[in-house]
Amino acid sequence: MCGIVGYIGNKRAIDFLLDGLTKLEYRGYDSAGVAVNCGDEGIFIEKAVGRLDSLKQKLKGRLPNGTIGIGHTRWATHGRPSDVNAHPHSDCHGNFVVVHNGIIENYLPLKQDLISKGHKFISETDTEVVAHLIEENYHGDFLLAVREVLAKIEGSYSLLFMSKFHPDTLIAAKQDNPLVIGLGENGENFIASDIPAIISYTRKTYILNDGDIAIVQKNNVQFVNRQGAPISKKIFHVSWNAAAAEKGGYEHFMLKEINEQPKAVRDTISPHILNNSVNFNELNWNSDFLKNINKIYIVACGTAYHAGLVGKFYIEKLVRKLVEVDLASEFRYRSPIVDENTLVIVVSQSGETSDTLAALKESKRLGAKTLAVTNVVGSSIAREAEFVILTAAGPEIAVASTKAYTTQLILMFMLALYMAQLSKSIPENEIERLINLLKKIPAQISETLSDVDPIKTFAQMYGFNDDVFYIGRSLDYCVALEGALKLKEISYIHAEAYAAGELKHGTLALIVEGVPVIALATQKSVYEKTLSNIKEVKARDAIVIGIAAQGDSQLSNYLDHVIFVPDTDELLIPLLTVVPLQLLAYYAAITRGCDVDKPRNLAKSVTVE
Ligand code: F6R
Questions:
Q1: Residue 78 exposure: Cα atoms within 13 Å on the Cβ side
Q2: Going by CA atoms, what residue is nearest to atom 6 of ligand 1?
Q3: pLDDT tens digit string along 517-570?
Q4: N or C: fewer beta carbons within 10 Å in the chain?
Q5: Cβ of 358 less than 6 Å from ligand 1
Q6: Distance 606 CA to ligand 1 centre (A)
């Protein structure tokens, strides 16, 4: 979604601003802009709809020399993508500029009030209100004016302010949207909405909390709260490798991230397995804690929701506790039955998804115990939840989630085992057996990744079909949902996933000669039933590609194409079956010439409702 960058120091600000915005391109955006304080010449502003290249074209031959500036990539919410709606936004006289991620919910009454006081608005955005508000409230004290503005606005935001009158200061504020300050070495400091924008400049950061205001100068960073009282913050050292945020030789981030899964999964498993038992020091639960939980919700969006569906199987099967899985955008609006005996698990790669964050806050308000499964330390969701467990996927840049999904599955599986250990719901030797199989998963994913040619061929053969169906039962169905989502979002092929047993209740009408059907048949407990569903679609002359476990000798008798994955327990096999589906989506998108890493209309981190 939107991205923010800021620079103050001795160098030309524009160079960092453009580089930082380029590093944030993965978040998705539809326009971009920069503002640089050029002293006596005033504040230079340039903005352009479309990709950053359009902005760079406009700046050609006229890059400003000022050493303090702010920049933004916008994903339209209020007002269509356009040059004028792009950030930064300015007051009536060009004395104050602001960039903003999030939504100012009460902007309309504020705008009407400002118009009645003579302010002239030029954009359709909610953000422009902030620029005029600061003009209205400024009486010589920049920080005081910012605090007055924050007291008046409602909604979610990270905001970065610059003023012509204060060429030595940037002010940043945060509420429900991420913001980080990077500490430079030689009289310079950086500001960004995401760490990848600054990691090639510094690893020393301050991560802002809700309510924090940062006053950033080239040799100094101070923090105050909304009341203006100073607060002290600890430096957070970023350990991510800068190269991890680059494509590393792959054509696309998505392919790189698919191939990173063995490592991501290994890194997620290893801190929690000790002497054949599962350990979550960060939870430190006991059997009484679990006894008091009579209901579990898993709440998430998109791919993370699909990981939640698998998590439900794990917990219900291994712990024998009832689990409901909910879309975060639905959960909070349907009066969920939540109390202090409820555990709400939110799953979010970014830790910033607005709906998931809101569901988490609502669950807390209702008294639930909350656990976040996330990939981003210090994210809003990680900070809001009572308990946090982290996937070790590293930065996921491609919009389509891959390694985050598999690492989420791993954490859900280990969490279920951990709960089973505490509640003694399954025998110890069964836990040991599953842990031993779990340890083999990284190598088995590598094996699955080593033979992509048949998948490439299928993608080339069927990449131009209009519709594809995915079927499966039990956990195969959960993975089918994820496979269909991957295909839809990056190749724009219409794809639907069906519980195989549901076909005859309606969807079978769509299965005609030549329609591609991807059939997953790895769940041993329902294998025969899945096989009869496969025969149903085959009898209607669909082109069926099977996904089966090695050792399956039956499926090839019925199907022309079968992709085999290594065999393991049926609970763990989703970690393997999803891999060919990710690759199938990837190569179908390539075949159709799609922008794999930045699919149309989608953003990496959905920080608005
Ligand atoms: C699909 C995808 C999205 C996200 C969803 C939730 O490939 O990436 O469906 O899974 O937007 O995002 P997080 O996990 O960041 O909360």
A1: 17
A2: 301
A3: 999 999 999 999 999 999 999 999 999 999 999 999 999 999 979 999 999 999
A4: C
A5: no
A6: 8
